[in-house]
Design goal:
The longest helix has 14 residues. By secondary structure, this protein is an alpha/beta fold. A hairpin with a 4-residue loop joins strand 4 and strand 5. The strands form two sheets. Strands 1-2-3 form a three-stranded parallel β-sheet. A three-stranded antiparallel β-sheet has the order 4-5-6, with no helix packed on it. The chain has a single domain, classed as Aconitase, domain 4, CATH 3.20.19.10. About 40% of the residues lie in helices and about 10% in strands. It is globular and about 45 Å long.
């Protein structure tokens, strides 16, 4: 899934869009049914190289504004991953889960509702279909960025502390 499929290029330079408007155009190039299937708090499971393509930050922030809890993929484009973490949006690489879901859900529309998953950060596993799929633990920096809500939030709190002396 490239960034144009996540957030269409025609919206990239529209600085006047609100977060709600950005959220409303997520995946419009890829799957028009996404808006009908999606529910706030859902997560997205993608394939390999999720977010490859341009460096548009909106491909990550629009998903966050849409209320997507996180993206789990077999792998991510490096720029996408950095943009996501810098904006406090969680991305987890778990190729074994992606392979399992591809085998069990088969082909269909691009947006396929799947089974529930449970992410266990203490054990770095994702539970699905009575199985546990391991993922590499997030780095300390990535964890701090997600918890803080992104790099701007960290920088803003640091500036506030500095100005108070």
């Amino acid at each position: 899934m490239n960034t144009d499929g996540i957030y269409a290029g025609k919206w990239t330079y529209r600085d006047d869009l609100t977060p709600e408007q950005m959220a409303g155009v997520v995946f419009e190039n890829y799957d028009p049914s996404f808006g009908r299937v999606y529910q706030e708090g859902d997560l997205i499971v993608g394939g390999r190289n999720f977010g490859t393509g341009s460096s548009r930050e909106q491909a990550a922030t629009a998903l966050k504004h849409r209320g997507i809890a996180c993206v789990i993929a077999a792998s991510f484009g490096e720029t996408y991953r950095r943009n996501a973490f810098n904006n406090g949006f969680l991305c987890i690489e778990c190729p074994a889960l992606v392979d399992h879901l591809a085998a069990t859900l088969g082909e269909g529309s691009p947006t396929i509702p799947g089974p529930g998953v449970t992410i266990e950060f203490a054990t770095s596993t994702i539970g699905c279909d009575d199985r546990a799929f391991p993922f590499a633990p997030l780095s300390t920096v990535a964890q701090e960025l997600v918890v803080a809500g992104g790099a701007e939030a960290i920088a803003g709190s640091s500036l506030t502390r500095l100005s108070r002396g």
